[in-house]
Amino acid sequence: MSIRAAASQKGNLLLAHIPRARVVYTTTPYDYEPGAFFGVLYLSLKVHLQSPSYIYKRIEEIKGLKDGKKTVLLLYVDTDPSIPVVSGKLSALQIDCFGFSIQTLLSSGPQESAKYLTCLDDHATAMPETRPAHIWKSLRQHRRDLSKRDALPRPETPQYPEKSLFLTTIPKLKVDDAEKLLSTGQSLREIVVQASEHALQYKGFGGAKKEAFFAHLFKAFNQA
């Protein structure tokens, strides 16, 4: 198997940890194509903090591609994520990627980044599972619970149960709260931004829930 790499990636330190014969430089809208099924965008968190628009431009460039590839953001965490402002930016980026159906992989350095790429190449027919079994169990149960509810109109999208489950992990928020929030048609990012600005309003969303939501968003990243 070979890993296709964009010419712009020459000199990237992660390539020192991949056998040279395994890397083929080519023209690609991605940074790396490990195997035939994945398109990888590589980004350092430090670069994202300095130029947050960069990755969104890259995502826009590939969003309309019909190449059948699963898009992956390989994010090198080279800045202390326990700093509140860094934690907030990182969380917002992950939520945005979730909305774009982009898988995010966090790396602690070039060697780990290289391992992710070779793993994707070695398992090119399926995305390596990064969620623990108990998360899948919770998601399956949540889907069953939603199917039994007479709730507000909800979009029939695969991401809806995941978004709903995500919101119910926030202290004091119940399934009813998640249904009300998602029924507005807002994205998770819009909901999170409003909560961070104390501007989130809906019936039944009182002071205790607002404070719990805000505290959950801005707790230290390494406590998440």
From TrEMBL:
Compartments, as annotated in UniProt: Nucleus
Main localization of the protein described in the UniProt heading: nucleus
Any one biological process term the GO annotation gives: double-strand break repair
Keyword Lipid metabolism: no
Superkingdom of origin organism: Eukaryota
Domain annotation ERCC1-like central: ranges: 3-119
Sample GO molecular function, one term: single-stranded DNA binding
Gene Ontology cellular-component annotations: ERCC4-ERCC1 complex; nucleotide-excision repair factor 1 complex
Cited Pfam families: Rad10
Family according to the record: Belongs to the ERCC1/RAD10/SWI10 family.
Protein name stated in the entry: DNA excision repair protein ERCC-1
Signal peptide, first to last residue: none
